[in-house]
Design goal:
Length: 163
């Protein structure tokens, strides 16, 4: 019985050590990953901003991609976005940020659009994106500019160029 218990204990200790579930704890490298996409993330009070990036378009503009979520019971509003000093053209003058009701720019679930006319930044570079709210503090993000290709080929109002 003692040999069987010791064997099971050895196996459990080995599994924990090999998977890193026991020794690494709260400082495990995988627990500290903050950004897993090209899009940047930020927070202003109870408003969470997820996966913000820009996709270049054939006409020289860029399309905004990102999600804004308010977790507070008190509503707020997204009142403006500018990119590299250029005011984004948004599909509404402001967007109500009601608790747990996301405002989504681009994609299958989009309920908002944002276009930055004349953004001359080449894909692969970062630009400052300033986001303003009715009540929450404004934020400045450093967002990636991506080409309209691969999984982003369908982003934007204009069709992707054919090769």
């Amino acid at each position: 019985m003692i040999k069987k218990t010791a064997g099971v204990a050895t196996i459990l200790i080995s599994v924990l050590a090999l998977t890193g579930c026991g020794a690494s704890g709260a400082q495990a490298p995988t627990r500290n990953i903050k950004q897993v996409t090209d899009g940047v993330e930020a927070q202003s009070g109870s408003i969470y901003i997820r996966d913000v990036l820009l996709v270049t378009q054939p006409d020289g503009s860029a399309t905004l991609v990102g999600t804004f979520i308010n977790e507070e019971a008190t509503s707020d509003a997204l009142t403006g976005i500018s990119v590299a000093g250029i005011k984004a053209t948004l599909s509404a003058p402001s967007f109500d940020l009601v608790q747990n009701t996301p405002v989504i720019f681009s994609g299958d679930s989009a309920n908002a659009t944002g276009v930055v006319p004349g953004l001359t930044t080449a894909p692969g570079n970062r630009v400052d994106v300033v986001v303003t709210f009715a009540h929450a503090a404004p934020l400045t993000l450093s967002a990636m500019v991506r080409a309209k290709a691969d999984y982003l080929a369908g982003v934007g109002a204009t069709p992707a160029p054919t090769k």
